[in-house]
What we know:
This protein is an alpha+beta fold. The chain has a single domain, classed as Ribosomal Protein S5, domain 2. It has helices at residues 70-84, 101-124; strands spanning 2-10, 13-22, 25-33, 39-47, 55-63, 88-95. Strands 1-2-3-6-4-5 form a six-stranded mixed beta sheet. The relative contact order is 0.25.
Amino acid sequence: MGTITITEGDGNFEINAIVHVMGTDILVVLGGGAVHIGAVGIGQPRPSLRDEGKISSTGSVFTFPGHKEDTVAKSMSEELARRLNRRIVVVAGLHWDRLDAADLGRILNICNRITERIVAEVTLR
Length: 125
């Protein structure tokens, strides 16, 4: 099993991803701010419904009550599954107090950059 650590930030926001490559499967532990477990996203690659020659993905998410990481966990797991053609689990725990819409946009941008870096790192291995 190989482990990759990725850190991305923007101003007061820093998010860390610990990526465990477990055979053909990948586990991503995503944390930022007050780190915890808020949601778990699962991505499964599958043939595209529109073009059988392409890979798409199907995802599921479990979110603990009161948490809002479901969007990040599900979208990241599905995107990674589609692009890497591997089963993906993303465990996400991100928490900062008093976020506004601009802050949420910055956090989503950081998560997108982390997704891109995971794709690049795993593809190189």
